[in-house]
Amino acid sequence: MTAAADSPVDPQASETPSTEHEGDSTAPATDDAVSSPEGAASAADPAAESGSWGRVDDDGTVSVREGDAWRVVGQFPDGSPAEALAYFERKYADLAGEVTLLEVRHRRGGASATDLRAAAAGVMIKVDGAAAVGDLAGLTSRLQALVTELSAASATEAAAAKQAVDDAVAERAAIVEEAEALAARDPQTVQWKQASAEMSALFERWQKHQQDGPRLPKSTGQQLWKRFRDARSTVDKHRREFYAQLDEAHKGVRQRKNRLVERAEALAPQGEDGIAAYRALLDEWKAAGRAGKKADDALWARFKAAGDALFHARSERAAADAEASKEKIEAKKELLAQAAPIVDEKDLARARASLTAIQRQWDDIGRIHPRETERALDDDLRKIEQSVRTREDADWKRNNPETKARANDMTRQLNDAIAKLEADLADAEAGGDARRISEAREALEARRAWLRALGG
Fold first, then answer.
1. Which residues, 6 or more positions from 66, have their beta carbon under 8 angstroms from its beta carbon?
2. Of 21, 228, 294, 355, which has fewest CB within 10 angstroms of its CB?
3. Distances from the Cα of 354 to the Cαs of 335, 349, 360, 368, in angstroms?
4. pTM of this structure
5. How buried is residue 366: exposed, middle or buried, by Cβ count under 10 Å (0-12/13-18/19+)?
């Protein structure tokens, strides 16, 4: 086997590309003697064998020791034995670096054990029969130990991945169930602004879960998505139908309220006299329903302006009436001042005559504005009238002939009873009967009290 000095011959079809690594584990041995015939033949040249893992023959053939046997790994005819060994030792260092990198990645965690195990299997293929000088058996042992650890870790990862998928299916199913519950609600009772926000939030949760969560089995994922999509479509359909019905209802209300506005505006020429009719229109307005906020606000502004015009006319009239009533108010206050002494007038006939004269003048003055002032003045005069009427009722009771007749008859009866009781008391005292004396005295005092009450 021959090759140019700068191109050592490798018995493999191509060189294994070097892998970036975090440390070398090349440690070719240098002290053990070679016991094979080939080793004895080359022992005369110290440069022909640099350690226990590799040797270089006189013709530049490089071999690696595997157990008790030697395997040819290539030829380096135009270089020194040291250069030949160094070349193939570097190839070993590259393989050792790959093994070390896999060990470090496994130790640090974060990498998939399944992926690392596949990478380790690839490196093991490279190590098996590699054109390199070094402890290839040691690398193989390290790889086998790593693969064993990674196999156990892969099983744990698989179980965790399965649990994560199960959890993800449950979480996504919960999103679907919330969406389906929203779709199952009565469209007429749904607050659609809130419901739309809820469905948007569910869709955002779905997307986030799809992006951040584990990949679901295709059939399961498609089934859940179909359910979610159908629920979302149902909600959207119900929302569109609801607003279509609402728009139709609003259209009818807008027409009714527009007619009410036109009728209210037509009352303007009537001024204050149109207020009663406007109030009736207001009752119809309240019963008409809603026409949508924007339309309602615009129509109400017109309707209210029509009413304000009517009430403004009444306010102007009331202000004019109040101005015209100032003199009447003063006149009634003067009459009240004249009527005040009537309460203390002892002659009831004179008091009644004076009050009647004042009441006639009061009525002649007429109504005054505002009404609150009129009611206050009338109440003051009514108090004086009530005082006179109370005195008249008492006088009538005293001077009523029937009442007097009944009182005289009662007086006579009481006088007869008193005379009889006085005779009974005298008999009791004469007889010394204490019990009869006490009863007679009590009865006698009672009859005398009644007689005094009747003025006898």
1. 136, 137
2. 294
3. 11, 9, 10, 23
4. 0.39
5. exposed
pLDDT band, residue 352 (cuts 50/70/90): confident
Whether the CB-CB separation of 75 and 8 falls below 8 Å is answered with: yes
Q: HSE of 97 in the Cβ direction (CA atoms, 13 Å)?
A: 16
Beta bridge partners of 75: 9, 61
**Mean of pLDDT over the chain:** 80
List all residues 6 or more positions away from 389 whose beta carbon is below 8 Å from its beta carbon. Answer: none
d(CA 101, CA 122): 13
The rounded distance, in Å, linking the Cα atoms of 442 and 456 is 19
pLDDT on residue 20: 35
The 3-state secondary structure of the chain reads CCCCCCCCECCCCCCCCCCCCCCCCCCCCCCCCCCCHHHHHHCCCHHHCCCCCEEECCCCEEEEEECCEEEEEEECCCCCHHHHHHHHHHHHHHHHHHHHHHHHHHHHCCCCHHHHHHHHHHHHHHHCCCCCCCCHHHHHHHHHHHHHHHHHHHHHHHHHHHHHHHHHHHHHHHHHHHHHHHHCCCCCCCCHHHHHHHHHHHHHHHHHHHHHCCCCCHHHHHHHHHHHHHHHHHHHHHHHHHHHHHHHHHHHHHHHHHHHHHHHHCCHHHHHHHHHHHHHHHHHHHHCCCCCHHHHHHHHHHHHHHHHHHHHHHHHHHHHHHHHCHHHHHHHHHHHHHHHHHHHCCCHHHHHHHHHHHHHHHHHHCCCCCHHHHHHHHHHHHHHHHHHHHHHHHHHHHHCHHHHHHHHHHHHHHHHHHHHHHHHHHHHHHHCCHHHHHHHHHHHHHHHHHHHHCCC
The DSSP bridge partners found for residue 400 are none
Q: Under a CB-based contact definition with an 8 Å cutoff, are residues 67 and 137 in contact?
A: yes
Between CA 341 and CA 329 the distance in angstroms is: 20
Give the whole-angstrom CA distance, residue 22 versus residue 104: 8
- Alpha carbon distance 215, 200 (integer Å): 22
Q: Which residues of 25-52 are buried (b: 16+ CB within 10 A; e: fewer)?
A: bbebeeeeebeeeebeebeeeeebbbbe
- 243: confidence class by pLDDT, cuts 50, 70, 90: confident
